[in-house]
Amino acid sequence: MLKAGVLGAGHLGKIHLRLLEQSTNYNLVGFYDPNKEQVAAIAEEFGFTPFDSAEALIDAVDVIDIVTPTFAHFEVAKKAIKAGKHVFIEKPITNTVQEAEALIELANTYNVKGQVGHVERFNPAYTSVAKKIDNPMFIEAHRLAEFNPRGTDVPVVLDLMIHDIDAILSVVNSEVKNISASGVSVISETPDIANARIEFENGCVANLTASRISLKNMRKARFFQKDAYISVDFFEKKCEVVKMKDAPEQPDDFAMILQNAEGVKKQIYFDNPSVPSNNAILDELDTFAEAIKNDSTPIVSLEQGKKALEVALQIIACFN
């Protein structure tokens, strides 16, 4: 088992602590957080071992799980990598693309693995259809959340939209050609609602909307490709696959047939895979352990985390 430690014991950090303790791939050694009152409360409630410094925790483990505020990601990850430790970093990877590039270079130099916590890649609704998404040419994503003061220190693009940016970049095999976007600050100092249009070199277009001032939660993405429509509901953990194929000469009475202006007939049929129950955060941590043990590339690599950040920052730059 890999010895693991958690840096940062806020809301998400506590979730990571509990899941690492449950995992059969890790031995949870302890955690560090500068908030002494919070540390004492967690140690008392859960019995996890607190460390006096980030450096002490790094020295004691094989894997560091970084769940600190984003501004601290780079410095603590750099310390861990230079100590030869593997790093799991919550999204977004860092504050700047330059910091992300520096971490990638360090990880290569010190021969350690790194993964970024884009957890929606492990959402069962997404994993159930990911292999069916093939050269999509139009993508629409809506990620709406009720207001929560936690996370409003960063634009909604880095708080919410970056999940969809990462998912889209993972299925569109093309470079970004152009980005246009708008954002509005309603209650926070940074934009609370944003819309972005990403155009790719291969002609694919992605339209993304994110809001943290909605009256209800919604996390949906729709992928349109030749002869297929794929819908993913990340919130309800449901998916739908609608495909079209050439209609037979004599379709049965219940077949759904469409005919275009040229007289070409297509039959519609549904291919909806079952969606297994899982804990996406536990899955992302466990697959990272497997990547370390097998010396393979993590599912969400540092390089992919950098690309998602790069696009997110380009979107934010459109607001100015």
Automatic annotation (TrEMBL):
<feature type="domain" description="GFO/IDH/MocA-like oxidoreductase">
    <location>
        <begin position="156"/>
        <end position="216"/>
    </location>
</feature>
<dbReference type="InterPro" id="IPR000683">
    <property type="entry name" value="Gfo/Idh/MocA-like_OxRdtase_N"/>
</dbReference>
<dbReference type="Pfam" id="PF22725">
    <property type="entry name" value="GFO_IDH_MocA_C3"/>
</dbReference>
<feature type="domain" description="Gfo/Idh/MocA-like oxidoreductase N-terminal">
    <location>
        <begin position="3"/>
        <end position="118"/>
    </location>
</feature>
<protein>
    <submittedName>
        <fullName>Gfo/Idh/MocA family protein</fullName>
    </submittedName>
</protein>
<dbReference type="InterPro" id="IPR036291">
    <property type="entry name" value="NAD(P)-bd_dom_sf"/>
</dbReference>
<dbReference type="Pfam" id="PF01408">
    <property type="entry name" value="GFO_IDH_MocA"/>
</dbReference>
<dbReference type="InterPro" id="IPR055170">
    <property type="entry name" value="GFO_IDH_MocA-like_dom"/>
</dbReference>
<dbReference type="InterPro" id="IPR051450">
    <property type="entry name" value="Gfo/Idh/MocA_Oxidoreductases"/>
</dbReference>
